[in-house]
Input
Amino acid sequence: MRRLFPSLLLATSAALAQDWTSRDEYDLALAVRAQKAPAQRLPLLEQWKQKFPNSALRPQRAEMILAAAQFLGDKTKMTEAARELVAVNADHFTGLYWLTLFAPQAPLAPTPAALAEAEQWARRLVKVAATQPAAQKDEVTALAHRTLGWAAWQRGDAAAAEKELFLSLAAAPRNAEVSAWLGAMMATQKEPSRQVEAIWHLARASYTDGAGALAAAQRRDVRTLLEAAYTGYHGALDGLDEIGAAAKAAAVNKPAADFKIETAAEVAQRKADEQMQATNPQLFTWVKIRRRLTGAGAQAEYQKLAEGALPLVKGYVVRCDADPKPTEVYLGLQDSAVEEVVLKLDAAQPRCPEVGIALEFEGKPVAFSAEPFRLSVAVDAKSIVGWPPPPEKK
Output
């Protein structure tokens, strides 16, 4: 357990010099001072609290109980003591600190009242943090916003939760727990962009080590969630270590604007493209052109394409505009039965090639229609590879 504040194991001489409720209280307080070990001191402090609940030394006694319980790792006693400190002084720094820290660690689902109370403590702590030394200010501010983010998350207010958790990370960038919360929260959202952010934050939480890292058990849990989210989005675990290393090393608490993870569909498409490029480069050349003409800004892409010449590609005859003496030949390139390209011949030809025959051609794009998709290309008929020779004269 952290020890942000020095343990208050001894009441001050000034405090003990105050008026006592009775001689019995004075003797009990002396007995507490005589015990050096927290394990022996805590029962005496509890006895003092039970016998003299309204003692003038109530704040000092609560601080001593908290310090002894902190040493022993007793969160229940620490919480009780912190509550008493805040009851006496609503802005008591030490009391607010521990109550705010422990609020998200409650074993049961928090009630609306418990969430409201936690938010009240955290907001007070934000104000009190401003008065603390610089060495503690950022850490305490981060803690307060962490609890405010957690409370909003528990209420189902994702926007407020994200705002507070990012404020927490701004003050303490290496807090893996807060990154894990952000990742877990984003992972439940449907938008693909949120899934990418979720993976980045979960990776940052899972791969961060040293100061701010998660405990081993939490880290394993986050890694399990990370792998599930990454596999669901990307399709496999390849590349995850590289993402984790980049997220861990990032100086900011969000992925860069150009950060991208391939979806499973994109991975499958990339592999199919690589296979096509290796086995049928002409078809792949056409597929890339068609993607340009069916994506965003299709007309602008056509204008760029029309400034040059179409490279050598292959298509299959679907039909001609006339037979005999065709001047236009309609070809399918990806599907031999679906028209995609119209060859604008420089001169009428004796007859139309047979349906399904393969023709290789290159030429200049001269017209384009997006719906139905149709690219017209001016070609020199004599340059077409595969055009059948004219029939022999009898």
Remarks:
- Residues 173-272 form one domain.
- The beta strands are 310-320, 328-332, 341-345, 358-370, 373-379.
- Residues 134-155 form the longest helix (22 residues).
- The longest strand covers residues 358-370.
